[in-house]
Design brief:
heterodimer, A: mainly beta, Alpha-Beta Plaits, SH3 type barrels, 2 domains, 11 strands, B: Rossmann fold, Rossmann fold
Chain lengths: 155, 302
């Protein structure tokens, strides 16, 4: 196990207790922040972006003090950060590692790509069935059209 | 509590489909009854579709129900900017069931979620039109006496044709073989072919109707529209290749029937009408019985 307290890695300062979300693609960092509602909570949050990663090109990392996520909540970011890894921190130590997985259904995160869909005309919460997880393909429960990874837009 | 609605043919199990078709056969024997006495049905047509609306209104009237509604959104509160949500939540106070036609895709599913009474989707844009599919199934079952092991020949615009896509999906519940006859520009989309591949169902694509016409139990004709072609010269080249004439039917199967969702323009020559294999007007009549069966099923009256 990599020691998260290794000073060489501390590009973003360590937290005493909370969650570290690593391996977020740099380009989707702000989408992850929005999906998890991190812009609306009062916890101490630090993040770094455009960090070099051996596997991901440019990555981003978020550290949220005093915050722990349920699987259902964290899986919502799988659409934009499918390789994200979570480190659960207690007393400055990684006590648990988790990966995200694309859920079977998606509510209120993605926009239907069909311009003629009711969800793009009226205030309707979007709902999708996940018909493929890799690459992601979502079937709109309203117009029944498929929104694929390329056309995926986060609301 | 959310009422049971019919938005997409996929909402129904095969067992439920067969139950509706059986009930439609009962209504065919006795189409005038008192079942809907005291019931009010709304026909909300946000875009005009005279044929579908008249069929529904006939179905309700013959069963003693009353109809309220509008035939075009320009004559309704929609033209004042009312949302679909508000229209449905208002109208569902006045009626026992809503029949809705709307140009926006997914509008019917949304309406069914906000409505306290059942909603029947009478077409939501290019998406679904399940009562058409059910009346097609009824017509096939009635003329072939089975829905299994049939050859369905689909002709014309197979790319944009909502009715052929729904019928394909519905018939794929049984062991059906398909022939797709269309100009290249309007051929069956890959997603439907892939769907059949996954189910192990056979299909064959051709541009030549004569090649496959004699294999068919059902010929399902659709209109090839000029607007669908990017190149008008292409349209001129193919426009007559997908027109059915009486002489082409000489060697077709004896029990074969020709279906068409109507309106027809020129894709079936009027000389076919007198042929016993022409079935499109009876098909339209079957729509009344099928809709009677659907309405009564959703209202829990049968």
């Amino acid at each position: 196990m990599k020691n998260i307290n290794d000073p060489k890695q501390l590009l973003v300062s360590a937290i005493e207790s909370g969650t570290v979300i690593d391996h977020i693609p740099a380009v989707t960092l702000f989408k992850v922040i929005k999906i998890l509602g991190l812009d609306k909570i009062r916890n101490q949050i630090t993040f770094g972006t455009n960090l070099d990663s051996k596997t991901d090109g440019k990555k981003a990392i978020i550290k949220i003090a005093g915050k722990f996520f349920e699987d259902d909540d964290i899986n919502r970011i799988a659409l934009v950060a499918p390789n994200a890894k979570l480190n659960i921190i207690k007393d400055y130590k990684v006590v648990e590692k988790r990966v995200v997985s694309v859920p079977d259904s998606i509510t209120a995160i993605a926009k239907c790509m069909n311009p003629k869909c009711i969800t793009n005309f009226e205030k309707v919460t979007t709902r999708f069935k996940v018909v493929s997880k890799k690459p992601v393909a979502l079937k709109c429960l309203y117009c029944e059209k498929i929104t694929d990874q390329e056309r995926l837009e986060i609301i | 509590m959310k009422a049971r609605s019919l938005v997409s043919i996929d909402d129904l199990s095969t067992e439920e489909i067969m139950k509706i078709l059986k009930l439609a056969a009962e209504f065919e024997k006795k189409p005038v009854q008192d079942i809907l006495n005291g019931k009010v049905v709304a026909t909300l047509f946000f875009e005009p579709s005279t044929r579908t609306r008249l069929s529904f209104e006939s179905a309700v009237s013959k069963l003693g129900g009353k109809i309220i509604g509008f035939t075009d959104s320009s004559t309704s509160s929609v033209s004042k900017g009312e949302t679909l949500n508000d229209t449905i939540r208002t109208v569902n106070n006045y009626v026992d069931l809503i029949v809705m036609r709307h140009p926006i895709e997914g509008s019917a599913r949304y309406a069914s979620e906000v409505s306290t009474v059942p909603v029947i989707n009478a077409g939501d844009g290019a998406n679904q039109h399940p009562t058409q599919t059910l009346l097609d199934l009824y017509s096939i079952l009635k003329t072939q006496e089975t829905l299994d092991n049939l050859n369905i020949c689909m002709v014309g615009d197979l790319k944009y044709g909502r009715t052929v896509h729904s019928l394909l999906m519905a018939m794929s519940r049984w062991n059906t073989s398909f022939n797709f006859v269309a100009p290249e520009e309007l051929s069956m989309p890959d997603e439907y072919k892939l769907y059949l591949d996954n189910l192990g169902l056979k299909y064959h694509e051709t541009v030549d109707l004569q090649e496959v016409i004699n294999q068919a139990d059902i010929i399902y004709m659709t209109r090839v529209q000029k607007e669908r072609f990017s190149d008008p010269i292409e349209y001129e080249k193919v426009k007559n290749a997908y027109v059915l004439h009486d002489h082409m039917l000489a060697d077709t199967r004896p029990g074969m029937k020709i279906l068409h969702p109507l309106p027809r323009v020129n894709e079936i020559n009027p000389d076919v009408d007198a042929n016993a294999k022409a079935y499109y007007f009876e098909q339209a009549l079957n729509g009344v019985y099928t809709r009677q069966a659907i309405i009564c099923t959703l209202l829990g009256l049968k």
